Each structure stands twice: as C-alpha cells, then as structure tokens.
Amino acid sequence: MSTQVAVAAAVAGIGAYAIYNLRNRTPPTGRPLFASFGFHSLKVHSTELINHNTKKVRFELPDKTQPSGLSLTSALLTVSFPNGRWLPVLRPYTPTNDLAEPGFVELMVKLYPGGKQSSHIHSLKVGDSLTFAPIKEFGWTPNKHPHVALIAGGAGITPMYQLAHGILSNPDDQTRVTLVWGVNTDSDLFLADEFKAFEKKFPGRFKSVYVIATPDAGSPHTKGFVTKQVLENAGLSPASEKNKDIKVLVCGPPPMEKALKGTKSLFGSAKPGILGQLGYTPDQIHGF
Ligand SMILES: Cc1cc2nc3c(=O)[nH]c(=O)nc-3n(C[C@H](O)[C@H](O)[C@H](O)COP(=O)(O)OP(=O)(O)OC[C@H]3O[C@@H](n4cnc5c(N)ncnc54)[C@H](O)[C@@H]3O)c2cc1C
Asked: Whose CA is nearest to atom 48 of ligand 1?
C-alpha cells in the first residue's frame, strides 16, 4: 500500500509532461544520487539472465565512488515510454545489490508475458538508459524486533532479499530472520544460492523454507502453497515465546497477499487471513 501511495504521489506531483522532459536529465555527481527524491536516468552496465524468466540488470551511477543513497528498505520507481508511448509506464523494483556498494544499482526483474515494464527492462541493452526515482519502503530499525518473518511469493522475494542481506551484513543487528518463499516451480528459486550462503554463515539466525506449487520430481521442498500449517512448521506461530514482538513482512502476488492478510470491506468488516488466524495482530504485519 505504501508503494501505491508513493507511486500515485509521484505521478500527481510531476505529471506526464515533466516526466517526459526528465528523460535525458544528466544526474549530478559528488553525493549519493537517491538520498533525496528526484528522477535520474542511469545507463545499463550489464545484463544477465539468471533463470528461465528473470534478468539481473546492473545500472551505473554517475559517481563511481558513491553508493546509491537508498536506505533499508527502499525501491526504485522506474519510468519508461516503451515503443514511443506518450504516457509513461511507472513500476517499482527493488535493488538487490548491497546498498553500500558504490557506483551501481542492480535489479532482478521477472518477465511477465505482455508485461509493459518487465518487457521493456528485459529488452534493454548495455548502454541503454532507464529513468528512476527512489521510494522509501518499510523503514528498518536494527534490533527493534528480535525476529522477523519474511513471507514472499514469486518475484516478491526481492524486498525480502534486500532486508535479509541488510540485517545480516550489519554486525550491530542481531535480528533473527525466517524466510518463507512460495513459487510455482523449483526453477523459479533464483536467489536460492544467496540464501543458502546466509544459512551457512548465520546458523540459528537465518532460516529459509521454500514452498513449490508444482515441484520437480525429487524436489526437497514443501509442495503446495503458503498455508497456516506451513507457517507453523516454519516456527512462525506468534504464540511461541520465541516469537515475542515478531514482525511479519509480506510481498507477493495479490491473491497470496489476500490469503495471508485477509480482506476488509468498505464498511470495516474484516475477513481474517492466514496470519490473523494464526494470532497475528494487524500492527505486526506489513505489506510491501
Ligand atoms: C514495492 C515493489 C517492489 C517490486 N520489486 C520487484 C522486483 O524487484 N522485481 C520484479 O520482477 N518485480 C518487482 N515488483 C513488481 C513490478 O513492480 C511489476 O508489477 C511487474 O514487473 C509487472 O509489471 P509489468 O509492467 O511488466 O506488467 P503489467 O503490464 O502491469 O501486467 C502484465 C501482466 O502481468 C500480470 N502481473 C503484473 N504484476 C504481477 C505480479 N506482481 N504478480 C503476478 N502477475 C502480475 C498482470 O496481471 C498482467 O496480466 C515490485 C512491486 C512492488 C510493489
């Protein structure tokens, strides 16, 4: 929801004409580019297909000595005019490189058949440009919660990866992290090596559980969808003493978010989702 508000505000604030004129703006150097709001055009440095439908695209920042300036957690609103459109296409994507890395931002973009922005980003070649503006997402405070549950569906994994990486690479942050990731097939698990490395380096602090709708024969992962049972088996029951003050973050396709968070009617009556049935209160849950 926060992203939708940010996107709407950005659109209302600048207008299509302003965006059009910002297409070729030259970014300033000497300070982190995205530490404050503004639209900037960045050049593609490299592209790499990392599974059957997801591309890693690295963009060069104008100052190679500066990090992006994005805080944990943040996304980038992308603006494009695919095929000469007059109206812009705006979609948020979550950088997956270390936020402290100087000189680059990196996206992992899943291609949706017929998807306007994902198709455009997949078509970009080295040297092409894309326009970005920063969006602050969930503001992370180290050690505020002893345990954080990250529940992702499909490409909704990228904000979870950014947060898990940010927590675990901060020696002053001792938060425990449990990831539950639902995907369609084993081949959709494009960040699994990175999560495996977290598990090895931080035993007892980082745990991942993958749930596959249609697993390969012999897949070691749980078959099906993210259910109450799956979350209980992953150690995410809020009644457990170990989960006192736990925070749950959710990012996935709308049907999954609805199943987890429940629905609210116009008149305020609510149908609890899986998280509510488990005993989570609304203030414990954040959706990207
Ligand atoms: C905060 C935030 C961060 C995000 N970060 C990433 C990221 O790092 N990497 C990434 O790949 N995506 C990310 N997304 C999703 C991204 O913003 C776009 O929604 C997605 O790329 C589809 O845009 P499109 O223009 O290609 O598709 P559209 O033209 O909008 O839609 C084309 C088709 O794809 C379907 N579709 C669109 N979005 C989804 C979806 N999320 N799940 C299932 N079906 C969908 C539509 O139903 C439609 O049929 C993020 C979304 C949010 C809110």
From this structure: 115
